[in-house]
Structures are given as structure tokens and as C-alpha cells.
Amino acid sequence: RSFARSVLRFLGFIFWGTAVAHMYGGVSVILMFKNYRYLFQEAYLSLPGWLALVTALTLLPTGVLAVSISVKSSRNQQGTFMCLLLLLLCLEMSSVALARSYCVRTASQLESAISYLVHQHNWTCSQDPGSGAVDVIQRKLHCCGVHNYTDWLKASSLHHPTCVPESCCKEKHSLCRGDLGHVEQLSEEGCLKKLEDQLRFSMLYIFWSCIVLSILELLATVSNGILMRRQPFCELCIL
């Protein structure tokens, strides 16, 4: 019983720490889909991020109850603690399922979405830095084209075949104008790979943080159950 109390006290502090981790993961997912809304049209894709925020807020009182129960057991607190653990389990399993399915689904849509933006983009070999959606993405991710800068050559017309948009230029080359005669001044990587890596990292972060938290909650449930066995029900009003 004393070991169960120690475990609950330790898990209470862990729950507060994981609340911060879940909040970071949720905010990063929401901001990612907001920043790249040109590519992700469906608003519900940010749902795993919102679920992570709700999970983080629920973890705060759960941690408080875990510490409180470890100091002085209360039947009301123990029952509320079990209810919160059940709620957290539902939120986490939903987040795991959504993160896994969205990661596969959105990855297959990224290439066609970026390719469409590239082919719809109008640019000229001028001083105009460009402010289209694809320019914003290329500057933010330091990338060029779908796979590399040659994608712009395939999308270009006969009027501007010797340059790419200035948003492909590396930041350290302030005089770069997208001239294909100076390929070393252009970003080497394509935007597709960088977007896929960012999407995969955010979704896997949500996925594994929920899995780890579920294991910790199982341990907290067992510890709380051990303490509840020592105090049998005297009445049914708690139900």
C-alpha cells in the first residue's frame, strides 16, 4: 500500500509534465495545418491537435488528485480519479487513431497539392520576390519545387525558362534572383519531403505520447485500485 501511494505521488508529477508535452504537441499540429492551409483544405485535420490540448487540460486536475490521494485517501477523490483516467484513455485512443489515419491520408495528398500550386504559379525573372502560397512555403521551409528546382522548369513556359521564383533562393545569398546559372544559390531540397517530415514528426509525436501516457495511466489505475481495496464500500451513495 505504501508503494502504491509512492507510485501515485510520482505519477502525479509526471502527469503535470506530460500535460506540457501534450500541449506542445497539440499547438504544433494546429499551427502546422493553419500555416499550410493552402495544402490542407479540410478543417477537421487539426482535430488530433485539439484533442491533445483537451488531454493536457484534463491531465492537470488528474495530477492534483494523484498527489492528493497519495497523501490522504478519500473515496470521492479516488472515484473522481478513476473517471478522469477513463476520460483520458478515451481521448488518447481517439488521438492515436486519428493521428495514424491522418498521417497516411494527408501524405498521399501533399504531392498533388504542391504540384498544383507550382503549375498555377505565375512568376517572372524580375526583382519581384513573389507573395503566392508556394512562395510562402518555399521561404518558410527553405525548399524549392516539389522534389527540387527542376520542377519549376517543367512548369515554366517559353517566356521564362531560365529562372525559378526568388523564394527558392537561400537566405545567405541576398543577391540571388533565381537565375539557373547559379544553381548553388538555390535550395537543394524539395518542399514535398520537408512537409512530409514535418507532418510525420507531429503526428508520431501525438501517437507515441498518447501510447506512453496510456501505460502510465494503467499503472495509476492499478495503484489507485490497491488503495481502494483497503477501504471497502460502506454505502452506495458514491455511485
TrEMBL record:
It is found in: Membrane. It is a multi-pass membrane protein. Pfam families: Tetraspanin. The chain crosses the membrane at residues 7-33, 45-69, 81-102, 202-222. It comes from the Eukaryota. PANTHER family: TETRASPANIN (PTHR19282:SF477). This is TSN3 protein. The gene is Tspan3_0.
